[in-house]
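Consider the following assembly input.
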Amino acid sequence: MQVLGIDEIREVLSSIDLMRVIEEGFQDFTAGKVVVPPVGELLFEEPPGEVHIKYGYIRGDRYYVIKIASGFYDNPRLGLPSSHGMMLLFEQKTGTLVAILLEGGYLTDVRTAVAGAIAAKYLAPERVRRIGIFGTGVQARLQLRHLKEVTDCTDVVVWGRRREALDRYRDDMERAGFRVETTRDAAQVGASANLIVTCTPSKEPLLALGQLPGGVHITAVGSDTAEKQELDPAILARADLVVADSRAQCLERGEISHAVRAGILAESQLRELGEVIRDGGRARSSDEQVTVADLTGVAVQDIQIAKAVFEASTRRVPDDDEQLPFY
Amino acid sequence: MQVLGIDEIREVLSSIDLMRVIEEGFQDFTAGKVVVPPVGELLFEEPPGEVHIKYGYIRGDRYYVIKIASGFYDNPRLGLPSSHGMMLLFEQKTGTLVAILLEGGYLTDVRTAVAGAIAAKYLAPERVRRIGIFGTGVQARLQLRHLKEVTDCTDVVVWGRRREALDRYRDDMERAGFRVETTRDAAQVGASANLIVTCTPSKEPLLALGQLPGGVHITAVGSDTAEKQELDPAILARADLVVADSRAQCLERGEISHAVRAGILAESQLRELGEVIRDGGRARSSDEQVTVADLTGVAVQDIQIAKAVFEASTRRVPDDDEQLPFY
């Protein structure tokens, strides 16, 4: 049994073809090969905290995975991160514990960002003029970094509420090779960017249909509960293509759920990300189309990244040439 | 963060007052202080396997605990144990992972046996003439060993189906200081023993009311699902006192559930083990009474033993004098 700490996990990540690993996971999910029981939840009141236990496996695969992730929102007062996380890998045929990945929530962040890059690969306009990012946190950084794998565009406009956070984001991302304009006006993002990623915890729409003058792809990442919302549902109603990471889950929460509940988007109009990947190639017919991907996060992403990290850790020392700069 | 292996766990167990620790847990449970969400379950078909994820905490306590236990019943063909298990201990106020106990299912076995000793402490006749054990497995061994903490009686009759298993049980337990008679006739146990523990996976009653001529206490341990059954429900109907480890759970599964469903035992007649402990002293009015304790296993036992093991491991090296011989 192996225990992998965060440093080792970051190191081996750079040797993994994460796009391929996560794409395979989405295809298996859409093909009905993934077994994922309901999420376990443990709640605390004083101080407030929540623990989520997600677990499942891909039929015929080697491992099953349990992920334990928690949020204790008073932690920053104690100088501790509010999120914790770990993944456990077991043999599917014998139940033997194989590895404990003390990833602290980082692998969830990464697998989410990789899904964003996959969505852009299949859905973004062929010519990305400008990338628009909503949010200035960890996920807003990772999403942008991972887009390097699917577009050469380095021209970025980032929206945020706080000037200071915007400045830090700009400085960090410029060091990572992007040219970043900051704004607190959502219309400015909508007017110039044609590949937009929203990664905020907003509970009301940040972006309205009227703020999107032309063809665009939007990946919505932030809205992972029934309350959260980042997009005007009219955008989804107008879109030429709306893609869900999990059809079933997106009907329960996230942007799609709001539009379906409002009666302006039909379930039959949805496609699942795994279908789009399986069909291959760009899923839009022109750069003028409007497409939306709603990523609420599915357990198969955890299964795939945990497995890949463990296998890479047992296989070899990563080659310097292959190391991406940002892990 | 500490990772404790099975050797270290066995070593520190001998320095812990497990009776006290588990008694406190049952009292907290009965007092409504324990938060335990539904058990998570993951099932496998080829080869067959099942994983159970149990988790919870005692309000106002320091830790929360997640237990992962699995059974893969083809494992013995591969020379592997069929059961696996581990417990994870986290800080309740911050979610920080504190310890990983690689206990392999052993702590579940021990906390179950300790509950048996607690039941005997409060419910057995004052003068135990003879101990009767049904079953020859790990739990049948641990139950008998733990009874040493509550009775001086070392005269034992053990019932089993297979001669070979009976002989091995006798040899092992005689080395542990007991005098053991073996039998394949349940009536022989009922006729001579007045403290009986059943720990088999039987799906039909092993012991009938007519086979119990006098006062007796029976602790039923084996029946932890809705299908399993070790006692004639008439025994529970006749009993002067029927005690459940968890009232709610025993109505769903175990001996009590069979008797209640048969309409011969009323829910109002039940007492909970935590109540009996809280009231203190022997719960029977004479050695001639018949009492039954039904132990289906509750998560607070896991919480308490995990916490105690971790705290003992950080505290000190156990004193030789205190070491029980059997861990």
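The domain at 2-107+300-317 of chain B is CATH 3.30.1780.10 (ornithine cyclodeaminase, domain 1). Ask yourself how this observation constrains the way the partners meet.
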